[in-house]
């Protein structure tokens, strides 16, 4: 057959086209991470594109308000607290020194941020920046486009002291509460000089400078095209900072450091493997999992650590020391997630809590344990929940009796007044005697000194949170054989009844005379953040905050049907006023579906409550819709303050298809799996698989289930079921099976162990 010229043309072109196709490469888990998700906040604080290793001391991100900021303030060296500003600062510079301050504000472009790598063009100064982290050290590379001028690095400490030998810089920055962060820094290229400046020249080359914004300028000669810089950080000393650097980054090889960091991330994120779903869903899942590794951070350095809780350096005796946690945000889901896939780390963190408590005076369980001490923010004392949850899920690597003592002291000796570290006072005595935290009566002025002027009493939130804490205490006491304490605290854990308004079926603030505060609107009353009654959310959210006894709450609402109707009513009740007015009052009450708030942790368990009323199909529908509405692969893809895993742990659990509604009860409530297959590498070395048959993205309803081949007609499963390993299989469908897991025997357990 005669071949046409066109055929011959394609015969020649085909190999060229084939070679031009991009190589097909399997993505690793970290390749799905998009650190820019949520970098523009809906109202309050955005996420940041944090570069770090899992739970490591060194964290960095660009210094700016959010993603839309026009400039970044220098380059970061270490962030010392979640969402905090950097300690120290580094600013590469070309130009007249007379225009330099201790930090240079840059216009920037072409930014790339990955968990293990960062790069950016400082286009005003024609400098390209690359960065990679290790655990306690980091490495920068600066490429200079035009090298006809001297190149400078401006290095400062915002409040501290710096020293130089003409080749390296070391020093510290004060953080408060006798805590200091230390640094040791050097470059591969030899500098001309290091010193401070006056006018357009480096004038002083003193070996020491100190004070507010103390700084050095490192000068390199004209013609310098590349500068490689590496540094170590420490909370112990500058000598230890240098040791950390020498141990971790032995060569000026940024690519090698980045590759090692990437491997570490894949090892951690790969503990949960997924298949099926869209590329965006995988990005949301792995980005959420990455966020849960931002805290707590390990600050053990060669077997030692500095503790701000007593101001001393300690041997860690083989158990690394962790800090930087906001337990109010993380006890619900972040700690329970870590128990499943990072049991050794969770054990070390719980042991760290106990160590902190015994290092502090008085010996109270911490609530917001940060680098420079316990800041005692938010309300209640939910560290006790992390203790009970770990113990009831089989962890025996900590001193339960010692933990009980400091938890009990934190709840009974410290005031329950929010944001306070003062001893118990008159309000706490009232709580002990009457069983509820009293609200101010209408028109009553605050006179109690331990009450924070802005945070107020938060009496309903404090009562509901503390009865849960007392339930946890009672169960720990029971495990220890202390039946007197067990009976006392378990009995007190039912005191949520004392603030339940049977007429409205809401939890209602009650004054010291025993009267419900009137008039009262569960949407709007009680001031900014409803802090005169609740906290950050209104009465509709706190209506469901009886984590330890949801079956009782169902009865209090009038039974299963009434319970479901009231849940539906919450999702249907409008804001009732313009958004500017509503969000002026409730800046944290974001991600609204009616009165429900997806953007704040106290609401995360609510979508799963339908299971307790025998209608799990509604949970399946609600969880899927909330995930698609509020958690997206874009700059505004997180509906509220993420809080270092506090919110994204809900996403990880919910996309897997289950959630730990009650920390302390070793079980999980079933939702709707997002992926076709999931494989969880458990802390004990076993694996647990979740498989969806008849899978498609729109098939969100469970038709039937099997656990290890046995028909499963319960809307929950136990932690023991999970940790034994095995397989949970679902047959999915587009429409609900309203008969699956609906009997009383199918309901998730409550209250009793």
Describe the structure.
With 753 residues, the protein is an alpha+beta fold. It folds into two domains: 29-268, Beta-galactosidase, Chain A, domain 5 (Distorted Sandwich), CATH 2.70.98.10; 273-746, Glycosyltransferase (Alpha/alpha barrel). Helices cover 28% and strands 24% of the residues. The strands form eleven sheets. Strands 6, 8, 9, 10, 11, 12, 13, 14, 15, 16, 17 and 18 form a twelve-stranded antiparallel β-sheet that branches. Strands 19-32-33-37-34-35 form a six-stranded mixed β-sheet. A hairpin with a 5-residue loop joins strand 32 (677-681) and strand 33. Helix 8 (383-392) runs antiparallel to helix 9 (400-412) and helix 11 (459-479) packs antiparallel against helix 12 (483-492). It is globular.
Task: Write out key terms for the chains shown.
2 domains; globular; twelve-stranded antiparallel sheet; 753 residues; 19 helices; alpha+beta; six-stranded mixed sheet; single chain; Beta-galactosidase, Chain A, domain 5; Glycosyltransferase
């Amino acid at each position: 057959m005669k071949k046409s010229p066109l055929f011959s043309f394609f015969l020649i072109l085909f190999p060229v086209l084939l070679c031009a196709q991009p190589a097909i490469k399997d993505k690793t888990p970290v390749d799905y991470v998009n650190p820019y998700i949520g970098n523009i906040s809906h109202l309050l604080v955005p996420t940041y594109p944090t570069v770090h290793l899992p739970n490591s001391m060194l964290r960095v991100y660009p210094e700016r308000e959010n993603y839309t900021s026009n400039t970044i303030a220098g380059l970061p060296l270490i962030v010392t607290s979640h969402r905090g500003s950097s300690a120290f600062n580094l600013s590469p510079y070309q130009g007249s020194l007379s225009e330099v301050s201790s930090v240079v504000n840059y216009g920037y472009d072409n930014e790339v941020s990955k968990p293990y790598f960062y790069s950016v063009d400082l286009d005003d100064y024609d400098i390209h920046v690359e960065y990679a982290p290790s655990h306690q050290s980091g490495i920068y590379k600066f490429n200079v486009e035009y090298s006809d001028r001297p190149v400078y690095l401006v290095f400062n400490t915002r409040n501290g002291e710096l020293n130089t030998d003409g080749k390296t810089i070391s020093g510290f920055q004060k953080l408060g509460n006798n805590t200091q962060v230390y640094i040791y820094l050097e470059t591969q290229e030899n500098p001309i000089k290091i010193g401070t400046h006056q006018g357009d020249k480096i004038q002083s080359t003193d070996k020491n400078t100190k004070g507010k914004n103390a700084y050095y300028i490192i000068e390199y000669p004209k013609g310098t095209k590349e500068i490689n810089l590496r540094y170590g950080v420490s909370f112990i000393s500058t000598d230890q900072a240098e040791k950390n650097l020498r141990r971790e980054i032995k060569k000026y090889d940024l690519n090698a450091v980045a590759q090692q960091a990437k491997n570490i991330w894949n090892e951690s994120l790969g503990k949960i493997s997924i298949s099926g779903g869209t590329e965006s869903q995988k990005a949301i899942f792995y980005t959420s999992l990455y966020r849960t590794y931002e805290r707590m951070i390990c600050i053990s350095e060669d077997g030692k650590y500095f503790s701000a809780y007593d101001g001393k350096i300690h041997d860690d005796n083989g158990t690394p020391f962790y800090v930087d946690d906001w337990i109010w945000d993380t006890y619900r889901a972040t700690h329970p997630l870590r128990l499943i896939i990072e049991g050794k780390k969770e054990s070390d963190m719980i042991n760290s809590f106990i160590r902190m408590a015994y290092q502090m005076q008085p010996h109270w369980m911490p609530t917001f344990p940060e680098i420079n001490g316990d800041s005692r923010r938010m309300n209640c004392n939910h560290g006790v929940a992390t203790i009970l949850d770990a113990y009831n899920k089989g962890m025996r690597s900590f001193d339960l009796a010692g933990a009980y003592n400091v938890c009990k002291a934190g709840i009974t000796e410290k005031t329950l007044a929010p944001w306070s570290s003062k001893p118990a006072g008159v309000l706490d005595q009232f709580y002990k005697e009457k069983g509820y935290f009293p609200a101010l009566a209408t028109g009553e002025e605050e006179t109690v000194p331990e009450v924070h002027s802005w945070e107020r009493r938060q009496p309903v939130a404090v009562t509901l949170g503390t009865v849960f804490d007392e339930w946890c205490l009672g169960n720990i006491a029971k495990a220890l054989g202390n039946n007197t304490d067990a009976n006392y605290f378990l009995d007190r854990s039912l005191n949520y009844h004392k603030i339940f308004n049977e007429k409205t079926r809401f939890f209602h603030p009650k004054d010291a005379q025993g009267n419900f505060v009137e008039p009262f609107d569960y949407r709007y009353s009680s001031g900014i953040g409803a802090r005169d009654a609740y906290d950050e959310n209104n009465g509709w959210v706190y209506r469901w905050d009886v984590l330890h006894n949801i079956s009782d709450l169902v009865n209090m609402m009038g039974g299963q049907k009434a319970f479901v109707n009231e849940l539906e009513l919450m999702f249907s009740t409008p804001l009732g006023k313009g958004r500017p007015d509503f969000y002026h009052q409730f800046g944290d009450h974001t991600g609204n579906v009616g009165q429900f708030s997806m953007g704040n942790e106290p609401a995360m368990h609510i979508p799963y409550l339908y299971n307790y009323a025998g209608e799990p199909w509604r949970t399946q529908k609600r969880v899927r819709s909330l995930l698609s509405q509020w958690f997206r692969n874009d700059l505004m893809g997180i509906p509220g303050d993420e809080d270092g895993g506090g919110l994204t742990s809900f996403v990880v659990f919910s996309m897997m298809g289950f959630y730990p509604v009650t920390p302390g009860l070793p079980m999980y409530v079933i939702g709707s799996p997002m992926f076709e297959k999931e494989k969880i590498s458990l802390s004990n070395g076993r694996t647990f698989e979740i498989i969806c048959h008849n899978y498609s993205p729109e098939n969100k309803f469970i038709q039937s289930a099997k656990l290890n081949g046995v028909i499963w007609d319960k809307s929950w499963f136990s932690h023991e079921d999970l940790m034994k390993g095995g397989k949970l299989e679902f047959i999915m469908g587009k429409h609900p099976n309203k008969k699956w897991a609906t009997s009383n025997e199918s309901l998730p357990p409550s209250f009793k162990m």
